[in-house]
Design brief:
The chain is mainly alpha-helical and 218 residues long. The chain has six helices and two strands. It is found in: Endoplasmic reticulum membrane.
Length: 218
């Protein structure tokens, strides 16, 4: 009975963390996508522009799901590799990481360079700086690269099929700096997921003790 109760507590914890990460992903998707639309970086069909935040309906849930998956994978991979992440583990650091990530996105649409290559190199340096400042783990770097690759491939397919498009594409159908945004986004969401995994186990311990006491009394 105690094992089943413990399993239920862990499942509930996983669901709570996933919901928090999903909400964060939806919020960031709405804000950052709106910024790119206003600066004419991405173009959607005319009927999309009348919807909530001028965003396609599928973008927030897709980004929210991606954030939940990535945020849950980071602490799992840390545990699997036997390398618990202890670098700058506090919410203040996580909030600064989010602020830097938003700043990188803002720079991608605000900064004016002679060509996209210079902008891409600048954003790549900023993204690596974000990882070095707030992460510095092998698992974080590896998952960030994987996230950037998969998200870029999916975006290429969406643009190729005419779902939406980028202005001035220089990396097949998208902008060359897009993988940098996905990389920094993966690292940011991963840090949120790690922090949630570190904070919520303390809540789990209280729940497990109460469950054990209840079983003992019963």
């Amino acid at each position: 009975i105690a094992y089943g109760s413990l399993h239920d507590v862990r499942t509930a914890n996983l669901i709570r963390r996933g919901l928090v990460l999903f909400t964060v992903g939806v919020f960031l998707a709405l804000v950052l996508n709106l910024l790119q639309i206003q600066r004419n970086v991405t173009l959607f069909p005319e009927e999309v522009m009348t919807t909530l935040f001028s965003s396609a309906w599928w973008i927030p849930p897709c980004c929210g799901t991606g954030a939940a998956v990535i945020g849950l994978l980071y602490p799992c991979l840390d545990s699997h590799l036997g390398e618990p992440h202890k670098f700058k583990r506090e919410w203040a650091s996580v909030m600064r990481c989010i602020a830097v990530f938003v700043g990188i996105n803002h720079a991608s649409v605000k900064l004016d360079f002679a060509n996209n290559v210079q902008l891409s190199l600048t954003l790549a340096a900023l993204s690596l700086g974000l990882w070095w400042t707030f992460d510095r783990s092998r698992s974080g770097f590896g998952l960030g690269i994987t996230t950037a690759f998969l998200a870029t491939v999916i975006t290429q397919l969406l643009v190729y099929n005419g779902v939406y498009q980028y202005t001035s594409p220089d990396f097949l159908y998208v902008r060359s700096w897009l993988p940098c945004i996905f990389f920094s986004g993966g690292v940011t969401v991963g840090n949120i997921g790690r922090q949630l995994a570190m904070v919520m186990p303390s809540f789990n311990c209280v729940c497990v003790k109460r469950v054990a006491q209840t079983d003992f009394i019963a």
